[in-house]
Amino acid sequence: MYFYLATMLKDSMSSHITSELEAQAALTREFLIEKLPAKDNFTYDLIDPLVDRLGKANNARVTFIGLDGVVWGDTERDGQALRAMNNHLTRPEVQDAIKKGNGIRDRYSDTTQTEFRYFALPIHRNVGAEVSPNGEGTLIGICRVALPMVAVNTAIGNLRRIVLIASVAGLILAIVFSVFSTSVITKPIQKLTQMTQSLAAGNINSRVPVDSRNELGQLSQNFNLMADRIQEQIDTISEEHRRSATILRNMGEGVLLVNGASEITYANPTAISMLALPEAYIGKALIEINRIPELQALLKKAEQTETIAFAEIQLGNLREPEAEVTVVPVSAGQEYIIVVHDVTKERQLERIRADFVANVSHELRTPLTTIRGYAETLLSENSVRTKTAEQFIVKILNHSARLTRLISDLLELSRLELGEVELKRSPCHLNTFHEPLLDVFEPLLEESGLVLKWEIPEKLPTVNVDPQLFMQIFVNLIDNAIKYTPDGGAITVAADICRREEIEGSNIASEEFILSVKDTGTGIPMESQSRVFERFYRVDEGRAREMGSTGLGLAIVKHIVRCHNGRIWLESTLGQGSVFYVAVPL
Ligand code: ADP
Q: Which residues make Cβ contacts (< 8 Å) with residue 427, sequence separation at least 6?
């Protein structure tokens, strides 16, 4: 504004002075045309006073110059000084006035030693019979009006000063206003920014003061509400976290968290003591701390299959697996939860129970043998005369035979459970069992009108099993099939080799053989299928007891299969028949 106004004012002042000069010069000319004596009568005494009067009236310097350049009158010079003034015809404004009709110049005056703006006009007058070609009259001289530029420059300087003061005042006002607006508008925004920064830095308690009702106030209020909401949620999460931490700290199961690189990221106190973790276990690879290959294998299995992996693992030096370990993938390849359930006590109790059963069975066997002995003696002696007594003795014998069977089954089962049975593996072909089985079952098969189809191919490789125990598997499964298949049915025994992808540390695929015993019997209801391998479980209690079954057969089979590191399962459709499968690694 200042620079624009300063330039503009200078220009307008300048043009104003010029037009003033022009007006004064025009008036001066008119006055001089009127008052000047005839050209030939020019004298200093006549003209100078006229010029002085005009100068006084105009408040300017007025000069009259004759055609020959003689200065006849000047407001600045009188008397001798006037007469001594040099020829003025060469002055540029005078030349312009003669040639162009007027002349204007800003120039330094040698006469007065100051800067002037000169404006010169020619003076024409009709003198006697003399007629100028343009009708204006004859040129008799030049009048010149001049204003000192000092005054003009002073006026412009004054105006500039005023503009400068106004500009400075405006600037100060603008600064004051911006400072004010900063405090009114920017301050709350700064506070908001600080609060959000503090929130982002985790200082959840920071709030912004709300001291206006405008949009900024609203914004601050919303921010505070948001912070409240975040605080509530953090409180809830913290509470849940505390609760989970308490549960994890106090639970009986060991819980471990490992990342994708198998490094421990968390372990609860139970896990620390169970796996004997050192103090600085966080970030350590599980393999570094804990050298239990089964645990590593289980973790690898969960990593590869991305599903829950479960195994019974021996953590200590005891014979039984001491813990049931479950590995649960949390996020694919990122994190895994390992839950270790200590089953040492359960296993101990099971051992105590099996011991007890074994002891009781053993103790029962001797009196039972005595009872059977006496009953047999009684029956063979002639002393038994009455029919009723004979019937009773037969019953005693039958029941004691059943009891003997039950006791020997119980003893067998206890021995298997206690791990007292030592496997005597020897390579044999499954077909070697055919003949002995026929010897056992032929009469029974004929009696029941059933056929036994033996479909084990000769090309099947030999298997490395305990023949005596495996015979028991065959006997139990075929015996059951005969028992639960009506007349005219068929029992099929088959076997095949199967490749199995095994993930136990290595990626070696193992082979196993699968033996199946299929019947066309009654079938097993769905709800009982998972329970038939439990001891004493019978689908139809009454019928089974009638048939003299103990409910221990499949439990024994299951244990023998386990001793061979195998698996047993069944498929059955009610009314159509069942298939029992036994898979054992080759
Ligand atoms: P059991 O000595 O009674 O045969 P198991 O343990 O061998 O005892 O069998 C348990 C129960 O499973 C039997 O009581 C029977 O109900 C059922 N079961 C076993 N095998 C068969 C089969 N082949 N067909 C139908 N039911 C069967």
A: 462, 463, 464
